[in-house]
Amino acid sequence: MKTTLNGTENGWQRVASYGELEKTGQLTVQAGEQTLALVLHEGQVFAIDNRCPHMGFPLDRGTVRDGILTCHWHHARFDLASGGTFDLWADDVPAFPVDLREGELWVNTRQNGSRHARQCERLEVGLERNLSLVIAKAVLLQEAQDDPAGPFRAGLTFGTRNRLDGWGQGLTILTCMQNMLPQLEADERPRALYQGLSALANEVSGEPPRFAIRPLPGAGRDIETLKVWLRQFVEVRDEQGAERCVISALEAGATRQQMADMLLAAVTDHRYIDVGHPADFTNKAFEALDHVGDEYAAPALTCLVRGFAQATRMEEDNAWRYPIDLVELLEAAFELLPEALAAGQGKTWTGRIALAALILEDDPAATLEAMLEALREGATMVELASTVTYAGALRIARFHTSNEFGDWDTALHSFTFANAIEQGLRRAPSLELLRGALDAAMSVYLDRFLNIPAARLPRPNGASAPAEESLAALPELLNNQQQVNEAGGLVADYFHAGGEAGPMLAMLGRLLLREDRDFHTIQMVEAAMRQIQLLGPGEEGTHVLVAAARYLAAHAPTVRAQGQTWRVARRLHRGESLFEG
Ligand code: FES
Asked: 78 CB under 6 A from ligand 1?
């Protein structure tokens, strides 16, 4: 039954008379809260949202020709009938059915289909086309949904399928961002996901896709055999054979811990491969599964092994062989690991600080002997690895700014590798993986020139400002280049004045996100956040965050173009008019 002319019926609303539209060919009308552009073109009436989906320009100011409406701001073109765009960076504009009833135009603004499905589709388009603004808008639209891991799942699915080289920096950044969400202020969380997804889209753009390898046919092989084969195939750089072992182990029902055990053994069979990146990627893949579950294990874990097989091995690197053959020292130490661990059973170790100091010194043989001794004295695998991670953080906390700028990355690689090994040992402790802790110590040793001279660790001078003042001073400080020591000093002052870890982590997260994404800085801040949760805000935790703040300060400010895209998306999301300034 029809209602009054101004009423509504099943979503239909009377918006204008046909006569009014006929006079001008174009009208702007209101349908509830929605502003529509009505267009009479070649005898047909069309209704579309009046707001250009790209950046909000009024589409009633556009030009219609041959059934296509062109927006006058950035010239995006839309099919009048469907609202679909020919310029994918602009997004489709909602189009609505129109009915002519006794000379009156009725429009139905009730949208068909699931709103959530449309948002997911927009995110997929943004990822596929590497469109940051589309990604940002889709993340903001999904934020309100009761599915906080939705964008992360979409990114994981996209990234693991579409890059032949498999797991790389993009998926690592995305996982870092997902990991950091709880430490960030609520309004920074969608921004973190947007940055992670944009980094992923950027990395995948133009890459050949990946086609998954199927598991071995028939009854499942036993996991131990598959682990042996995996390591054997990685050894001879046979990436397909290695991948088939991984997918077959999953098919045979391997648990997440068993998968971690086999992959982390394979990634540490050679010394510090690709400066630690494959080990960090492996750790991140398991952290990704912690967020989304084993349903994603096959794509996430199989796409790691190409990186294992292709990696540079430090056995091939001059600095690891001459003048001291670190590989030979390490292999001798590996032989002694079982005996050292057995001797330490039931004992309690207290030599953490002394060992960290020794790792930073100039004697790799003494370091390895001290690490074995620590195990004999009762150090657990995790305690030993955590000590190396701390030493790696101290390298950065004491990195002197007279070094070459690129060497920040050298120190960073050792720290994040050590962190990855430590987290791996927490997940799936094994003698094989413990080798990685010794490798990490050798890498920290090799970085010793970065502390010559060493920057002084900031210490309380008795005149510290209140914690809130130190915290509040950080954003302005990092608007200027190379405030490395000053940034470390503010973090130390904050904790010396009794500040709690939470606000400092939120601040470091905010300062990270306002800069353009940078893989290593993201790795640094995320690993430091992980570490302080394990260490607490005592002296060691302070040192780790001093290192993170110094690293961040060395890489700030950037041009902050990512932030500009994010602000545009957020203003559009709030319905603000960008074209009016
Ligand atoms: S093309 Fe319409 S606002 Fe950019």
From this structure: no
